[in-house]
Amino acid sequence: MVKADKKYVVYLIQATSETQEYDYWLCGGALVSRSFILTSAACVEDIKYLYAVAGYRTYVANEDLETDDCIQKTKKKIVYTCVPKAYKLTYNKVIEWAYIDIALAKVESPYGKNDDLFMKYCDYVPAPIEINYEAKFQEPGTDVIVMGWGHKKKWRKPDDTNNYNAPCLRYATTKIIPKSVCKEAYIGIKNMNPVIDEYMICTNGKGELNEEGKVHETVQFVDGCSRRDFELGVCSHEVINGRRQIFNNSYVHKGVTYFYNSKEIIWMEEGRPKTKKRTPGLSISKEFNGGNSKENKETDKPNDKEKPVKEDGAEIIDGQGDFEGICQNDHGGPIVTWAGAREQIIGVASVFKVNRYSECEGPFLYTSTQCNGKFLNCILNSKNAKARRMFQCDNSARDKGFTNFEKVISWRHHADGPAANE
Questions:
Q1: All domains of the chain, ordered by start, with CATH?
Q2: How far apart are CA 75 and CA 404, in angstroms?
């Protein structure tokens, strides 16, 4: 679960009287100005009447929307959307719905005018995040995090009526990898390579950043080795089960020297030394898990048999599990990195693979903000009365390099009533 205040992260829900009768439909997004949300084109093209939920870590299911105070007091109607004109939502054709899968959605009134309601009923006051337009922040090797309330790795089959959306905002820490890896992984989709090259970011594997942009701790200290000992270089280490285990032959606690031997485990707990005898045949990592390792206990080697899908899905988007990407209903959610101390959004969630066990898997694709910088800049500046309209936005479509498709959504005759701007 994300514990930090991600004030820019929002999610989109369909109006209860929307003609598209999806159950548990959900899309992610990020507030990039007081009035505009950055999300995926698929999200705003799929549903006409949408609400934005901001300032809230909690996902609220359809059946509870009418009773949740934060939702009822602060949700905002989407009154305008803009997508690249080349975009076309066709479910069974990935090449079409993944093509320039990015959009801007405007809310009925700017955030910042009813902060007292967010303070009283939600988790925090919404605030925008800066959009990245620099190529260097999407280069391979860049550490990033992705966020969403979507499914826990499991792709829900059409006949499955369960709600797998995450109850709280989660994150996954991952890395940007070369686009060639994604092109190879999606080679079966005709004409996908040019889309990946021109518009997308490719990620896979575990990253090193936590939700606050700090290096994620992956070192497990055992046998009395303190962090200071490790930093001073007096500890040895060994990689076990993919994690680095730190060992020390002896350590001093309150003037007493303790020695490690192969028959016992020694560690610090709440400032006091703890010991226990080792179980023959078990690795230290298993010993600390009470012998309940996922590995084969008899051989101490990984069990290479394929496992069926868990009923409740595998761990996802919390930075702690074995999943490092996006899944169903994470669409449109932000992928972010840090420029120094500043958090920046570099793209939105778009494409993932599904294996034969109905599990989402990588490599994962995100639509890049840098690759769509002209489109985003033009729309955000042209709709901001206080900002000078950028010269390039007044040019022809050929000169700009893109055209856009805008929708104004009127709520005048909707059952939920008119929007605040009508």
A1: 9-215+319-408 (2.40.10.120), 230-303 (no CATH)
A2: 27
